[in-house]
Design brief:
The protein contains six helices and no strands. By secondary structure, it is mainly α. Helix 5 packs across helix 6. The chain is flat and about 90 Å long.
């Protein structure tokens, strides 16, 4: 224990440091645990769950949107929150992290699609550059 800590605070500080060490140990053990993959959501089971009398109101709202043709149960199972506002509200009610995670996944998917499109454009440009005839150009005659 450092000398600059007053005597009356040494016992509480030691208790705090012990609790902090225990917390860190538990956190490390938790980080080392493997989390199993969650099973895929079955669209048919979602539809059955929405028909139950004790179904959440948000799920019943999605069922109405499906009945009206504005969304499908596959949209819900796949997490396509843009299908209908009710689907987005259902996911938002499931937890703030779900909607944020889905938005991040959509952004990542769009970023990968953009990167692939850029790669294809660069490949086309490279093909075009290979076909260009540079035999009549030179630096001294203003061909560049």
């Amino acid at each position: 224990m450092p000398d600059y800590v007053p005597a009356h605070l040494r016992a509480p500080l030691a208790s705090f440091e012990t609790a902090l060490a225990d917390f860190r140990t538990q956190r490390i053990r938790l980080e080392q645990r493997e989390v199993p993959d969650t099973p895929a959501v079955d669209a048919e089971k979602l539809a059955e769950a929405a028909e139950r009398p004790d179904a959440p109101e948000k799920l019943k709202a999605v069922a109405r949107a499906v009945a009206e043709g504005r969304a499908t149960w596959d949209d819900v199972a796949e997490g396509r929150v843009e299908a209908a506002p009710e689907v987005r509200e259902l996911f938002a009610a499931s937890g703030p992290g779900i909607v944020r995670g889905m938005a991040e996944a959509e952004e990542e998917e769009a970023r990968l699609a953009d990167a692939e499109a850029d790669r294809q454009r660069a490949a086309r440009r490279a093909d075009e550059d290979e076909e260009e005839d540079f035999s009549q150009r030179d630096f001294l005659n203003g061909g560049w």
